């Protein structure tokens, strides 16, 4: 089995870099039009903690990319 990781410091163009990272792992080979996708973000309660909690902006951008491929 081959494992892939896309490591990149992102200063701007988050959606573009997310799309590049998904292409790097060949995501369309695994996710088709009728796939169900579960995203497991890291949450901290009751407040967002930078560097620990998954950024809401990242989730929003990732969902906008995935929604073009599947519901």
Index terms:
71 residues, 2 helices, 31% helix
Please outline what is shown here.
The protein has 71 residues and is mostly helical.
Radius of gyration: 13 Å
Average pLDDT score: 90
Morphology call: globular
E-strand count: 0
Termini separation comes to: 28 Å
Describe the structure.
Helices cover 31% and strands 0% of the residues. By secondary structure, it is mainly alpha-helical. The radius of gyration is 13 Å and the shape is globular. The N and C termini lie far apart (28 Å). The chain has 2 helices and no strands. Helix 1 (14-24) packs across helix 2. It has one domain (14-66). The model has no long low-confidence stretch (mean pLDDT 90).
Q: What's the topology here?
A:
Blueprint: H1 14-24, H2 56-66
Helix pairs in contact: 1-2
């Amino acid at each position: 089995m081959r494992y892939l990781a896309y490591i990149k410091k992102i200063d701007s163009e988050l959606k573009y870099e997310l799309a590049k990272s998904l292409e790097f792992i060949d995501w369309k080979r695994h996710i088709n039009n009728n796939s169900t996708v579960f995203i497991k973000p890291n949450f901290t309660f009751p407040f967002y903690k930078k560097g620990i909690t998954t950024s809401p902006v990242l989730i929003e951008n990732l969902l906008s990319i995935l929604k073009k491929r599947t519901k």
